[in-house]
């Protein structure tokens, strides 16, 4: 899924946060009462800030096709940045603590472009998790992305419910909070004493000479390079992320492994699509919360250049 | 009682026995629940569960599994005893075994088909994660072959190769880890998905 939703945020470090906040205008404060005059784009900005800056804890249901899971999320922001703990309440017990990886494009800049690729509309009011919400529709203007229906808390802008929609308007995935409460800042759960597991994933633009050199020939409109992950220095592996502000796509290029593990063709899971191909001994894989045509278009346009070494 | 119901479901009873079982069920809510659970479990086995499964059901299945564990020795003894007097129940259709297997499938299906048994060979991009086999109900590990788990999990990615499946999950995991902030930020949903299908231990 992806993105389907929206949500929570995090992955934004404080520096970016402050810039985003500035760019969006601080009038999106958490308790604004000008909801009626707020445009859909402003609602998205408000949501984005809320998810990043507020401390909250909630329980939500996640549904994908016939599958349902219930999870609890705790989002904390302090001087160390934003962190988020996700725990499963059904099925296998799992906990996932997320840090705040470095970022590429700023949220505000992405927000500015968003209505080029999506049509934004206010759909009226509803209730979710016992709170009054503003319903926002986000419809793609082309075939390369999915649509969203977002239920945003009128007071805080937090996303309380979301539908991820395919091109025909059918729901691919849903998230719905059944309860959500704001936490007083400074109240840090014990669970958060651990360093975020993602902190080690250094993000850098440096391209190692041992890495494959490759270019993407065709990116659907609006998808820009978000960042390139060149970690795992000796693995001949490279990872780049592209995003249009809502949806994101990852491209992985690494040395192909055994034949049995070669991934060639297309696969999907809920709203996530994947495209794979082998070229010159490299496995090319494109994964994202986008329609199949998007990963296929990107994947088929990738060409490898001779390694510099 | 459960054996009777199981046999009834399989159509392996005489007309007379069927009437008796139906009478019993009419008068005994517990037997009716059992009948219902067996059918839902059957649906789970056939991958035919309704999209919105009642969580109470899952709870009841969990509880049922717990009870079955306690009853197991009796059930086994009973089976051995009856196998001398009646040949119609094949050992594999021992309701105890069948129930445990079905229940575990129901659990897996319910959770979201997300528990991937990572192939040791298929380490993903930049992930040194310890492979964690799918964890299912304790009883299931005894009675449910790994192959069946794969079958259920195969729905996650529509590929039939476990190695590719786990590889794709690792890619997806990396994607989530690195994908920077979009307007939506890092959504709960992507993470929800990850937690459900995380290729490594959540700790």
Sum up the structure in keywords.
heterodimer; A: outer membrane lipoprotein receptor (LolB), chain A; Phosphorylase Kinase, domain 1; 2 domains; 6-stranded antiparallel sheet; 17 strands; 15% helix; globular; B: 203 residues; mainly alpha; 0% strand
**What is the first-to-last residue Cα distance of chain B?**
42 Å
Q: What is the global morphology of chain A?
A: globular
Task: Provide the domain count of chain A.
Answer: 2
Intertermini distance of chain A: 38 Å
Q: Give me the count of strands of chain A.
A: 17
CATH architecture of the largest domain in chain A: Clam
Question: What do these coordinates show?
Answer:
The complex is a heterodimer of chains A (309) and B (203). With 309 residues, chain A is mainly beta. Chain A has 4 helices and 17 strands. Chain A has 2 domains: 14-199, outer membrane lipoprotein receptor (LolB), chain A, CATH 2.50.20; 202-305, 2-Layer Sandwich (Phosphorylase Kinase, domain 1). Chain A has helices at 14-24, 40-53, 107-117, 292-300, and strands at residues 56-64, 67-78, 81-88, 95-98, 118-128, 131-140, 147-153, 159-165, 171-182, 213-216, 224-229, 237-243, 248-255, 265-269, 272-279, 282-288, 302-305. Chain A has a 9-stranded antiparallel beta sheet with strand order 4-3-2-1-9-8-7-6-5. Chain A is globular, with a radius of gyration of 20 Å. Chain B is mainly alpha-helical and 203 residues long. In chain B, 63% of the residues lie in helices and 0% in strands. Chain B is built from 9 helices and no strands.
